[in-house]
C-alpha cells in the first residue's frame, strides 16, 4: 500500500452486491472490458483535460479489503463474497489517456480489462477520481489560457472538501497554475506552495504600518503585502514606507480590481517601486482574468472558481461495460445509449500541427495513423502491476501545454460552443 | 488522534507564515476571536443548513504536526516556528451552531477564541469542512422537502472526490436522505447503505431474464431490478416473470421519468405486483423531484446534483478575525466589510412556532430571550477539549426536521428569493 490507508470502501454498495451475485451464478469470471468516458463536455465547453490518472493508479494499489473493511461488510455480504474480497487484488489490464491529454465526447479515457468481478469493483473509485480531478483541470486550463504569461496561484482549498482541496491543487498545477496555497499538496505531490498573510494579520496589529513592518522583518522585503484592509492608496504608501521600493509585491483582494490595479501601478511607480509586482485575488474566474488582460497585473490568486470547476464541478464521466467474452454489449433503451465493444483512439492533425478530429474506433480495427497523427491511450497496468516509467505530473503539465497549442483557435475561446474538434466513430 | 491521520497540512501556507511572523513580533499570544459565517446565501436560496461541525471537532483532534508534517516544512519555516508547531495543541474555546441548524447571512456559525496563533492555524481546515458539508446539506434539504414522504438514496459518490463523497453522504443523511450507496459513509458514520445492481449486471448476462433470475436468487425477492437496459415494458414483464408479483422494486434510470413511472405502475398492477415499488434515478435534482410529486413514485436515487450542491458547490463561508484583546476589529475597505466584535445569536419565533428573525448581537450585550425564542450557538470546545455529550448525527437530522417546520412557508419554496427570515444586527 502507498500508506494512505485502504481505498476499498470508497465504493458504491451495488458494485459488491453485483459481484456477490456473479460469484453465485458463475458469471464473475467472464472476461470483460469497461470503458470510462464522457458522453458530452460540460455545457458549452470546447475541450476537457484528463487529470487524476496518477491518483487512480495510486488508489489501485491501496484497493484492499483488510479486517476493518471486511468487518464492516459482515451481515451485508455472504461468506463467499467476504472471502473473495479478502483475497482481492486486481489482476487485469488498464489503458488510458495520459494526464494532461485533452479529451472530447466519447474519448476512451480509461479502459479496464479483466474478469467481471475484478473490474466491476473499481468503478466508483475510478470515476470519483477522474470526474473530480478532470473537472478542476478543465476549468483551470481555461484560466491559464486567459492569464497568458501571468502566473496563477491556486488558493481555493478553503472552499472545498479538505481532501478534495489537495487533489484540486494537483489538478490545477497540472493545468498550468504556478503554485498552490495548500501545504499537503506541496508535501504529497511536490506542487510549489506560496502564501504570506491575510487580513487577519493586519487586524491583529495596532496599525497597518506596524503589521507591514513586522511582516517584512519576518518574511523579507520580497514578501507580498496585503494593502486593501482599510484604504488601498494609504495602504500602498505604508507598504513602501515599511519595505522600501524593493518590496516584492502588493496584493489587492477586493474592489474593482481593474481600476485598482491601474491606480496601484501608477502609485507604485511614482514611489520608485517600479519592480514591485501587483497580485490580484477575490472571486476571479476565467472571464474576470480575461477582462484584466490589458491591466498592469503581475499575477492572480484564484480560489472558489477553480476548486468548483467554474460552473462544472464534475466531469460527468461514466464507466460502462462494453465487452463480455469478446462480444460487444451496450444499453439500448431510450437515452444514455453507449457504443459497445472495446475501443482505441487517435487524434488526427494537419501538417501544421493543428488538431482536426478525434477518431474513436474498435480496438480490433486499427486505423491508418498518418505521419502527424497520434495514438492516444497508453498502457498503464498489466496483469495488475502498474507499469514503470509512466508520465510524471510535470510531464502531464508539459503535455497539456503542447496539446493546447494544437487546438484550433476557436477552441480556445471562453465563450460557449461546440467541442474544438469533432469525435468520429468509424465502424469495424 | 482519531486514527485518520494528521489533518495539520490541510492548511494554507499563509496561516503558518502569519504565525511565524507573529511569534517574531510578539503578537502571537494576543487573545483573539475568529468568527466563521456566510456573508450571503447562494444565489436565491432561502436558508442554509449547518453541516460538518462534527467533522470539524474530529479533525481538531487530529490537527497535530508530527515528524512527517514537520519535515515537509523545513526550509519553508524557521526553527522557532517548527518548534512551536511540534508542540501545537489547540487550547482555546469553540462555540457554534449545532449540525442541522438553519443559518442565514451573518449567522455566527462557529466562533473560535484563543491566542492569535492557536486560532489562526485552524482557518483553512474549518472552512473546508463547513463550506463543503453545508453546501451539500443545504441542497439536500431542498430535495428532501420536494420529495415529501418519499425516501431518497444518495448515490453521487462517483461524481465527486472520493473522500468528499463520504462527507457528502453524511451531509445528505443529516439533511434527511434515507440511505447512501457509499460503503465508507456506512462504516465511518453509520449511514444506512443501499444498492443492488447496475446496467453492467444485465449486460454481463446472455439475456435479461437470466440476469434478473440470478439477482433474485442471490439477493432475494425483495431486491430492486433495473428494468431500462433494453425496453422498459419488456423489462418489467421479465422482472415479474423472474421474481413473481412479490418483487420488491423496479428501478428506471433513463427516459421521461414521469411518463415511465405512470406506465410502469399500470403494468405492475396489471401483473398483480401491486406492492412492487418504483425507484426513479437519473439526473434528478430538487426541481425534477418536485415535478414528479403527482406521479406514482416510491423513492428517488439522487447523484450528481446533491454531491455538487445543486448549483452551489460551496457555501462561501469565511473565517474572520473580529476581536483582539477585547477590541473589535474589522476590514473597512470598499467591499467585503465585516462587523467587528464577538457575537452571539438567537432566533425569534411567533407563539405559533414560526421563525421571525435571526438576531446577531454583540456577545457582551445579551438580548432579551422571549418564551418562544431560541439561543443558537452551543459550547463545543473548552480549553482545547471537546465537550462530552454533543449532539449526534441522528440528533442533527431531527433538529433540521424540526427547524424546517418552523420556516415561514415562502421560505420552503424552491424558486429564487430572499432569505426566509431577515438577519438583524442590534448594536451594543
Task: Detail the topology: elements first, then pairings.
Two copies of one chain form a homodimer.
Chain A: H1 13-25, E1 31-38, E2 48-49, H2 53-61, H3 67-73, H4 79-86, E3 93-96, E4 102-103, E5 110-115, H5 116-120, H6 123-147, E6 152-154, H7 162-174, E7 179-180, H8 183-189, H9 199-204, H10 208-219, E8 224-226, H11 232-243, E9 249-252, H12 257-270, E10 277-280, H13 286-291, E11 299-302, H14 304-307, E12 317-324, E13 327-328, E14 343-349, E15 355-362, E16 374-375, E17 378-382, E18 385-386, H15 393-405, E19 423-424
Parallel strand pairs in A: 6-7, 6-11, 8-9, 9-10, 10-11, 15-19
Antiparallel strand pairs in A: 1-5, 1-12, 2-4, 3-5, 3-17, 12-13, 14-15, 14-16, 17-18
Helix pairs in contact in A: 2-6, 6-7, 7-8, 10-11, 11-12
Family (chains A, B): Belongs to the NAPRTase family.
InterPro entries (chains A, B): Aldolase_TIM, N/Namide_PRibTrfase, NAPRTase_N, Nic_PRibTrfase-Fam, Nic_PRibTrfase_pncB, Nicotinate_pribotase-like_C
Keywords (chains A, B): Glycosyltransferase, Ligase, Phosphoprotein, Pyridine nucleotide biosynthesis, Transferase
Amino acid at each position: 500500500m502507498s500508506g494512505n490507508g485502504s481505498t476499498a470502501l470508497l465504493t458504491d454498495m451495488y458494485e459488491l452486491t453485483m459481484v456477490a451475485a456473479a460469484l453465485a451464478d458463475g458469471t464473475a469470471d467472464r472476461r470483460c472490458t469497461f470503458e470510462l468516458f464522457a458522453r458530452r463536455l460540460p455545457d458549452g465547453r470546447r475541450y476537457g483535460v484528463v487529470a487524476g490518472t496518477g491518483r487512480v493508479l495510486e488508489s489501485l494499489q491501496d484497493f484492499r479489503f483488510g479486517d476493518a473493511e471486511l468487518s464492516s461488510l459482515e451481515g451485508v455480504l455472504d461468506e463467499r463474497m467476504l472471502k473473495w474480497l479478502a483475497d482481492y487484488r486486481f489482476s487485469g489490464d488498464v489503458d488510458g489517456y495520459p494526464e494532461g491529454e485533452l479529451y472530447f465526447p466519447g474519448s476512451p479515457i480509461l479502459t479496464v480489462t479483466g474478469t467481471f468481478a475484478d473490474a466491476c469493483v473499481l468503478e466508483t473509485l475510478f470515476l470519483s477520481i477522474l470526474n473530480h480531478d478532470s473537472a478542476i483541470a478543465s476549468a483551470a486550463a481555461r484560466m491559464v489560457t486567459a492569464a497568458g504569461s501571468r502566473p496563477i496561484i491556486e488558493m481555493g482549498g478553503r472552499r472545498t472538501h479538505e481532501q478534495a482541496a489537495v487533489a484540486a491543487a494537483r489538478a490545477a498545477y497540472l493545468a498550468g497554475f504556478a503554485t498552490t496555497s495548500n501545504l499537503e499538496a506541496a508535501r504529497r505531490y511536490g506542487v510549489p506552495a506560496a502564501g504570506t498573510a491575510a487580513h487577519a494579520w493586519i487586524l491583529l496589529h495596532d496599525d497597518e504600518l506596524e503589521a507591514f513592518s513586522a511582516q517584512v522583518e519576518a518574511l523579507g522585503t520580497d514578501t507580498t503585502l496585503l494593502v486593501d484592509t482599510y484604504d488601498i492608496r494609504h495602504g500602498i504608501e505604508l507598504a513602501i514606507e515599511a519595505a522600501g521600493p524593493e518590496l516584492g509585491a502588493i496584493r489587492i483582494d477586493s474592489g474593482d480590481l481593474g481600476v485598482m490595479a491601474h491606480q496601484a501601478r501608477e502609485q507604485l511607480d511614482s514611489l520608485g517601486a517600479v519592480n514591485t509586482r501587483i497580485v490580484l485575488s477575490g472571486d476571479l474566474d476565467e472571464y474576470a482574468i480575461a477582462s484584466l488582460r490589458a491591466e498592469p497585473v503581475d499575477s492572480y490568486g484564484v480560489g472558489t472558481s477553480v476548486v468548483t470547476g467554474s460552473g462544472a464541478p464534475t466531469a460527468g464521466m461514466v464507466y460502462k461495460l462494453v465487452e463480455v467474452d469478446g462480444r460487444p454489449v451496450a444499453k439500448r433503451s431510450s437515452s444514455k445509449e453507449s457504443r459497445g465493444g472495446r475501443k482505441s483512439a487517435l487524434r488526427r492533425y494537419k501538417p501544421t500541427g493543428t488538431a482536426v478530429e478525434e477518431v474513436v474506433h474498435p480496438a480490433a480495427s486499427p486505423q491508418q495513423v498518418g505521419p502527424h497523427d497520434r495514438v492516444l491511450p497508453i498502457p498503464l497496468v498489466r496483469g495488475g502491476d502498474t507499469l514503470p516509467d509512466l508520465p510524471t505530473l510535470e510531464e502531464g503539465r508539459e503535455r497539456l501545454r503542447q496539446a493546447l497549442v494544437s487546438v484550433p483557435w476557436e477552441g480556445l475561446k471562453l465563450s460557449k460552443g461546440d467541442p474544438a474538434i469533432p469525435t468520429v466513430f468509424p465502424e469495424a
